[in-house]
Amino acid sequence: METLTAGKEVISYCTKCKMDLMHVIIAMKGDRVMKVKCKTCKADHAYKAAKGVTDPKKAPKPRAKKAGTAKVAVEEEWARLMRENSGKPIKDYGSDLSFANGDRLKHPVFGEGIVTRQIYPRKMEICFSMDLKVLIHAG
């Protein structure tokens, strides 16, 4: 069983987010967790046990994330989309320009990308080789 100390993570009910979320312990009194900081909203508040958990030592442990799997999927999707739309010209990105789904563009920071969907009213999702980004445009 893991000993809880300040700086370790624990699942707690966030009074601001209104959900059970990961928190960092910031104050203890003896072996009791007294104060925590939400990793989502960054609010400090008194420790409140997650629903169904009465002892923080018995709370479920956070699961490790699989490293790199999402990045590989984005790279593969980007390559596929760029191949499918290889006949289209590459436009320079500008927030004052309009773009449609399937348009290829070149961003000064993120590089070449392709518009995958429109988000109302003036936003679009672009698949770049390393990540998906939401950018504004003239619509």
Topology (elements, then pairings):
Layout: E1 9-14, E2 19-29, E3 32-38, E4 44-46, H1 69-84, E5 90-92, E6 104-107, E7 111-119, E8 123-128, E9 132-136
Parallel strand pairs: 5-6
Antiparallel strand pairs: 1-2, 2-3, 3-4, 6-7, 7-8, 8-9
- Major sheet size, sense and barrel closure: 5 strands, mixed
Strand order of the largest sheet: 5-6-7-8-9
Number of domains: 2
**C-alpha Rg (nearest Å):** 22 Å
Name the helicity range: 10-25%
The rounded distance between the terminal residues' Cα atoms is 55 Å
Q: Structural class of the helix and strand makeup?
A: mainly beta
Mean pLDDT, nearest integer? 84
SS summary, helix count: 1
Low-confidence stretches: none
Number of strands: 9
Order of helices and strands: EEEEHEEEEE
Can you offer a commentary on this structure?
This protein is mostly beta strands and 139 residues long. The protein folds into 2 domains: 9-58; 69-136, no CATH class. 12% of the residues lie in helices and 39% in strands. It contains 1 helix and 9 strands, in the order ββββαβββββ. The protein has one helix at residues 69-84; strands at 9-14, 19-29, 32-38, 44-46, 90-92, 104-107, 111-119, 123-128, 132-136. The protein has a 5-stranded mixed sheet. It has a 4-stranded antiparallel sheet with strand order 1-2-3-4, with no helix packed on it. The protein is elongated, with a radius of gyration of 22 Å. The mean pLDDT is 84.
